[in-house]
Fold this sequence. Notes:
Blueprint: E1 7-12, E2 21-25, E3 28-34, E4 40-44, E5 58-60, E6 63-65, E7 72-73, E8 79-81, E9 97-98, E10 100-103, E11 106-110, E12 135-143, H1 147-155, H2 160-163, H3 171-174, E13 177-183, E14 186-197, H4 200-206, E15 212-222, E16 226-235, E17 244-256, E18 259-268, H5 275-304, H6 321-335, H7 340-343
Antiparallel strand pairs: 1-11, 2-3, 3-4, 4-9, 5-6, 6-7, 7-8, 10-11, 12-18, 13-14, 14-15, 15-16, 16-17, 17-18
Bound molecules: FE2/S2 (inorganic) cluster (FES) and fe (ii) ion.
Amino acid sequence: MYVKNAWYVAAWSTEVSRELLSREICDVSVLLFRRENGDAVAIGNRCPHRFAPLQMGKLMGDVVQCPYHGLKFDHRGACVENPHGDGKVPRACKVPSFPAVERHGLIWLWFGDQEIAEESLIPDFSCLVDTENYRTVGGTILMDANYELITDNLVDLSHVEFVHEGILGSEAIKRGRHEVLQDGLTVHSNRWCPDGLAPPAWDAMFGNYGKPVDHWLNMRWDPPAHMLLDVGVTPTGRPVEDGIMILGTDILTPASKTRTHYFWAISRPYDLDNPEVDKAWEQAIDAAFVGQDKPMLEAVQVMMGDKSFDELKPVMISPDAGAVRCRRIIADLISGECSVAVDHANCGEKDAPANRASH
Ligand code: FES
Ligand SMILES: [Fe+2]
């Protein structure tokens, strides 16, 4: 079960072109391409005749020709040509089409009721395209794990001390203050870790070797799994402006119940023109996300077998507070108890939103 009325990221803008691209999203095979006018289009990828993947076909103008028997479909999913017999197009001969919006360098799709497909519900990831103030590196990781397991991992950053020992972890993180705040359907899971040694990756980046720092990790989550992490270090007791920080984009799109597209990016407001720093961040992410988080999350998925999260009656510990809140919102959205369209202002508890300046 997935949240139906929500925007899902299908791809980076740069991935969608005049080449046909297919991607599985919430168990649906979706075909992505650009029209001749440059608009991004998303339609069903399964031909309704004998179920060939349209992605293997040809894009001719704004029309896709099925590779098997040549039916043609337009950007709205309507069959516009049947090359056989009298050329009549059966009424059922069409594929679904999905509203596609290009925002923040990403292609967002809506699978739910089209009347409430409000673009204003797309969370703010403007740092991804703010090239004046940030340099962004990013990519996509395919993980064989349920997207809510990955949300647990990202919203509860207590794992960094253990999974990312020697890269992102530090002893100060464990004894840091953790608070969870909710504003409408947005959850903030904030960790403030004062007066400790910086995690090794931050120590090297900050060039602060061995001196104590205050470290913050503030995660903003919006359903179904759109996260932005404000993370950084500053010399102990000094304002955050005296340190360094980055904004980390972590957007998860379920491919299926046990497979997830993980769109990640690091936007940094320093060393904008230094390709060496780009490379350092790409290597750090590869080592941490691909080398450490991915095997852990995929192993967790295997250990769960065919049981659901609730069936296994997971034990709860204090760092789970944020992730539990996110899971509850997802469950309420799926059951209909909440709605993204009307409940952004009044669903669940409402706390003051958090920000770095409050430290
Ligand atoms: S499978 Fe597409 S035209 Fe036959
Ligand atoms: Fe991690």
